[in-house]
Amino acid sequence: MSLPVIAIVGRPNVGKSTLFNRLIGKRYAITSPIPGTTRDRIYHEAELGTYRVIMVDTGGMEFEKKKDIEADVQLQAKIAIEEANIIFFVLDGTEPLTSNDLDCARHLRRSKKPIILIANKADRKRIAEAVSELYELGLGDPVQISSIHNFGISELEEALEKVLKKMKWSKDKPHNKKVIHMAIVGKPNVGKSSLVNALLSKNRLIVSDKPGTTIDATDTPIKRDGKDYVLIDTAGLRRRGKVKGLERFGVMRALQAISRSDVTCLVLDWGTGIANQDMHVSEYVLESGKGLIILVNKADLMTDPHGDQTNFLAHMQRRMPYIPWAPVLFISTISKKNIFKIFEMGRDIAEEMNKKIEDDLFNLFTKTTVLAHPPMRGGHNIIISKGQQTDVFPPTFTFFANKPDIIHFSYRRFLENEIRRKFGFYGTAIRVEFKPDWHSQPA
């Protein structure tokens, strides 16, 4: 099921990136008092109220003529508006409306998208006088918030829920896990549609040397060895500054396809190596908690298969050290080399994603692991009392501690590595969470 896309827009330095970080629950977008810090669109999934959504942070909207990078920032913000289902229009609630605010409001109204007007910095004294002026925009009641101090966020979530219900968006529910959904993603012209056609043994999808031929995500059911799959072919994920015309709409749909897949197949081109966009996609798969297979296409062009594959794997280890658990398969869509192994790997990964470790066994693992390597943080006495697996798809592990908020991220990574070493979870992202356990508070 696709997730609704919400773009955060507004002029520079009104707190868009701070709000983005607040809503996704982590420091992801760069925040700075210097206008224009956010140069590109940044995507991340978030849970707002009872809905899962895709949040998009953007650079500031300005309508004076700009050159070079500033012009590209404006283009990226406008593309985000076109890709979004809902707009969060953020203004500084302590300042009078500017001509840029008025221009931005007119542009947003022309988009015909639902708009939620947000008055940020509501913790300051000048808010009441400035907010009354916002009604001139004709966008309804502004939601008053403070991104920094977490004020008004619940009211913002309530306003969003009303809009989503009115638009009849369904809440994100797990689809039928008996059918494995596999998204095929990657840069343009790496052979995604050719791969799907080869797997189906027919020309189901348009294949062209011209980048951007596939615009929509295309779902194709297929049965293999008695197991049901759905292949989701997507538009090429191009470096954002080079996205033009209709092709620009494919980027968001590809991310939506990842969100509704179980396993993502990231197709790389052996001849061109790993680009920054490939890394962004793999990070998005990781954040989304999906299974991942790395497919290196055009292996038929290798002159020294063993040496070329070894060199590529070393290159991948340097570029993508954060996904050592993802299997790598060298394929050729032309000769069909190794392509049908994708189904078996997808099935195995789905089984790993659905694997559940018994509470007693995992709690024993927790006690022995923590005893051997206790968490340390600046002299604090951190006690992890127990651990258990709390979910599947993706496998999620919760550890209960007296001071969960100060546990260093490196200890989370250590526990993930130990979980994988002990229990496997081949090919799938896993989540490690820390929650308070008041019974473990030291006397």
Outline the structure in words.
The structure is a single chain. It contains twelve helices and 15 strands. A six-stranded mixed beta sheet has the order 2-3-1-4-5-6, with helices on both faces. It is 34% helix and 21% strand. The protein has three domains: 5-166, 3-Layer(aba) Sandwich (Rossmann fold), CATH 3.40.50; 179-351, Rossmann fold (3-Layer(aba) Sandwich); 359-440, GMP Synthetase, Chain A, domain 3 (2-Layer Sandwich), CATH 3.30.300.20. The chain is of the alpha/beta class. Strand 14 (396-401), helix 12 (409-423) and strand 15 form a beta-alpha-beta unit. The model is unreliable at 29-41, 68-73, 203-217 and 236-250 (pLDDT under 50).
Write the layout of secondary structure elements.
Layout (H helix, E strand, L loop, with lengths): L4 E5 L6 H9 L17 E7 L2 E7 L10 H16 L2 E7 L6 H12 L4 E6 L6 H7 L9 E2 L8 H14 L12 E7 L6 H9 L17 E7 L2 E7 L14 H12 L3 E7 L6 H13 L2 E7 L7 H15 L8 E3 L10 H13 L5 H14 L11 E8 L4 E6 L7 H15 L7 E6 L7
Key terms:
443 residues, alpha/beta, Rossmann fold, GMP Synthetase, Chain A, domain 3, six-stranded mixed beta sheet, 12 helices
Task: Tell me briefly what this model is.
Helix content is about 35%, strand content about 20%. By secondary structure, the protein is α/β, with parallel strands linked by helices.
State the CATH architecture of the largest domain.
Answer: 3-Layer(aba) Sandwich
Helix run count: 12
Listing every helix as H and every strand as E from the N terminus to the C terminus, the arrangement reads: EHEEHEHEHEHEHEEHEHEHEHHEEHE
Largest sheet: 6 strands, mixed
Task: Identify the CATH class of the largest domain.
Answer: Alpha Beta
Strand order of the largest sheet: 2-3-1-4-5-6
The percentage helix is 25-40%
What is the arithmetic mean of pLDDT?
Answer: 82
Give the helix/strand class: alpha/beta
CA-based gyration radius = 24 Å
- Which stretches are poorly predicted, pLDDT < 50 over at least 5 residues? 29-41, 68-73, 203-217, 236-250
Distance between the termini: 48 Å
Shape: globular
What proportion of the residues form beta strands (DSSP E)?
15-25%
Indicate the CATH topology of the largest domain: Rossmann fold
Number of domains: 3
Number of strands: 15
